[in-house]
From TrEMBL, chain A:
Belongs to the flagella basal body rod proteins family. The basal body constitutes a major portion of the flagellar organelle and consists of four rings (L,P,S, and M) mounted on a central rod. The rod consists of about 26 subunits of FlgG in the distal portion, and FlgB, FlgC and FlgF are thought to build up the proximal portion of the rod with about 6 subunits each. Residues 93-135 form the Flagellar basal-body/hook protein C-terminal domain. It is found in: Bacterial flagellum basal body. Pfam families: Flg_bb_rod, Flg_bbr_C. This is Flagellar basal-body rod protein FlgC. Keywords: Bacterial flagellum, Cell projection, Cilium, Flagellum. One of its GO terms (biological process) is bacterial-type flagellum-dependent swarming motility. One of its GO terms (cellular component) is bacterial-type flagellum basal body, rod. It comes from Allochromatium vinosum (strain ATCC 17899 / DSM 180 / NBRC 103801 / NCIMB 10441 / D). Residues 8-32 form the Flagellar basal body rod protein N-terminal domain. It comes from the Bacteria.
UniProtKB/TrEMBL annotation, chain B:
Belongs to the flagella basal body rod proteins family. Residues 21-39 form the Flagellar basal body rod protein N-terminal domain. Structural component of flagellum, the bacterial motility apparatus. Part of the rod structure of flagellar basal body. InterPro entries: Flag_bb_rod_N, Flagellar_basal_body_rod_CS, FlgB. This is Flagellar basal body rod protein FlgB. GO terms for biological process: bacterial-type flagellum-dependent swarming motility.
Length: 139, 135
């Protein structure tokens, strides 16, 4: 029955990874309207990198949890807009805004929450299967 | 009369173990639904069960001496089935071949099979108990 127990490990790793992804989406959305006077000071959208890990306990087995390998900054250049009256405007009258597409972030958020739900479902099912297995022969 | 519990339960314990293995594999696929380059994997339940039970239709080597090599599968190792790759219906740019709907369906199907096998095992245990107990 150790197989069913390993599902907890695998699915929990996916839950952690997806919640990190949700966190970065939240951070991107919160900073979407942020302004700065230089391109360097502008917020860069963050993206998570997922990676499969081979379970140390079971190197030849089938359990393959997922982990967040890293969080990278978006490559897109900040968008300069000419707004000389803006308090953040530089000498030439430009304000820099991060190149964050809110619609894209929303789609990312939906995808993360769907994956999270799917893994929660797997966890619940695995738990009930284990409980049922323990009850064999009790009736 | 000697009572062999292995015989009494038949194929059911192996079936439960293989189904638990498959549940773990499908959970892995679902966990890696957004991992770039992850390839979705699965195995044939009936083939693995046939191997564990020694009923596989693969050719056996003819052996005339006890110390001849055979191609028979070690029962304990047969529970590490040969994992196959799923062929994606639609290729994705990041190299991931997990189709969440398909995996969910497979997981649900496997769960149902697991539960029904457990149910059979449960019935088998209770009928054995009934046979062994005095009225």
């Amino acid at each position: 029955m150790s197989d069913l127990f390993r599902i907890f490990n695998t699915s929990a790793s996916a839950l952690t990874a997806q919640s990190v992804r949700l966190n970065t989406v939240a951070s991107n959305m919160a900073n979407a309207a942020m302004t700065a006077s230089t391109a360097e000071d502008t917020y860069r959208a963050k993206h998570v990198l997922f990676q499969t890990v081979i379970d140390q306990e079971d190197p030849n087995g089938v359990a393959m949890p997922v982990r967040v390998a890293g969080i990278v900054d978006d490559e897109c250049e900040p968008i300069p807009t000419y707004e000389p009256n803006h308090p953040h405007a530089n000498e030439e009258g430009y304000v820099f805004r991060p190149a964050i597409n809110v619609v894209e972030e929303m789609a990312n958020m939906m995808s993360a929450s769907r994956s999270y739900e799917a893994n929660v479902e797997v966890l619940t099912t695995a738990r009930s299967l284990l409980q049922r297995t323990l009850q064999v022969g009790q009736s | 009369m000697s009572l062999s519990l292995d015989k009494a339960f038949g194929v059911l314990p192996s079936a439960v173990l293989i189904k638990a293995r498959r549940a773990e594999l499908l959970a892995s696929n679902l966990a890696n639904v957004d991992t770039p380059n992850y390839k979705s994997r699965d195995f044939h339940f009936t083939e693995v069960l046939a191997e564990v039970e020694g009923m596989s239709n693969r050719m056996k080597l003819a052996t005339t001496r006890a110390n001849h090599l055979t191609n028979e599968i070690d029962k304990s190792r047969a529970l590490e089935p040969e994992l196959l790759y799923r062929i994606p219906a639609q290729p994705s740019l990041d190299g991931n071949t997990v189709d969440p709907q398909l995996e969910r369906a497979a997981f649900t199907e496997n769960t149902t099979h697991y539960q029904s096998t457990l149910e059979f095992l449960d019935r088998r245990v209770s009928s054995l108990r009934k046979a062994l107990s005095k009225e």
